[in-house]
Amino acid sequence: xxxxxxxxxxxxxxxxxxxxxxxxxxxxxxxxxxxxxxxxxxxxxxxxxxxxxxxxxxxxxxxxxxxxxxxxxxxxxxxxxxxxxxxxxxxxxxxxxxxxxxxxxxxxxxxxxxxxxxxxxxxxxxxxxxxxxxxxxxxxxxxxxxxxxxxxxxxxxxxxxxxxxxxxxxxxxxxxxxxxxxxxxxxxxxxxxxxxxxxxxxxxxxxxxxxxxxxxxxxxxxxxxxxxxxxxxxxxxxxxxxxxxxxxxxxxxxxxxxxxxxxxxxxxxxxxxxxxxxxxxxxxxxxxxxxxxxxxxxxxxxxxxxxxxxxxxxxxxxxxxxxxxxxxxxxxxxxxxxxxxxxxxxxxxxxxxxxxxxxxxxxxxxxxxxxxxxxxxxxxxxxxxxxxxxxxxxxxxxxxxxx
Length: 403
Known about the structure:
Layout: H1 10-19, H2 24-31, H3 35-43, H4 50-60, E1 79-82, H5 88-108, E2 112-113, H6 132-145, H7 156-162, E3 166-170, E4 177-183, E5 190-195, H8 201-217, H9 227-245, H10 248-254, H11 261-271, H12 275-284, H13 290-304, H14 322-332, H15 340-345, H16 349-356, E6 374-375
Parallel strand pairs: 3-5
Antiparallel strand pairs: 1-4, 2-6, 4-5
Helix pairs in contact: 1-5, 2-3, 6-9, 8-9, 12-13
Family: Belongs to the short-chain fatty acyl-CoA assimilation regulator (ScfR) family.
Keywords: DNA-binding
GO molecular function: DNA binding
């Protein structure tokens, strides 16, 4: 490597190009270097000088020191809920956003304890070995672990975060991709990123349950490269979402027969699930056949159109709380100042605000704080590993005493 910052991490540059959706030529023009120079940085053959690194950090709105930090241990390859038109660059951008959310979580975990991960354990290695019965059992076990009973879930986002899953919801500008999920490599913690581009609470709940299905059913299965396998894993996550949100034991007893669109609208408002998803659940349970399904979808399209339903705007999307309240608590307790947090994490204030659901401009002023995570003893050094302190993660709602 030629002269320059010896600790410069080329992987950081790759992340920046993906997250900011820049080509090497565009970045070179912004920094004032040649495209060949950026290519050498990216390949690890050369590193920028201090002066050039400052320019690079400034144009992409990041801390210069952030470019010298080694990447966290890799997470599992994210599983996307998307359609075939989703571009590779869009996927790379969202993978990087998810990786940054993982980094934020790990940096904040120096100060707080998050809830223990509480999910059903499944060790499937191939989606073809997963049966419909397996999916129903996994959804039922998840409800039991979370003590949700078999009634409608009032706030799925809260339930997910209470189970130790880190949830991110932000506007991505990529409507083709509705969500993605992965397990972090360092702490084996699950993460979900949902698109906030469509302001539909019913769709958002189903997307969240869909990603939950991926985390449980497909944790040990590599990301699908073949179209048929991808479609199968997506169908299984859909089935899990339906089974989790519309549990067999109670849902079937509430369905009015014959099945009519008007009655399904009432079910939609009670269960927080779209009419389209309810129809698919009825098919999965054998309560209507394929011919009846097609007839219902035709009537639905004729009455409401293909992409919307009545009352879509009656339910606001559920919002993540955990990362937001973690930062609010650290500021409120005087552990960190507003301006120190972006420097500590290394990302821009805007990136952190979007990834943690903080209001725009939060780091320019104060905010009312409601505590949710718990402060770790400030007299202790770096956190012990999970194997050294099993069971010491406190409950979601309980404060830990500080000294």
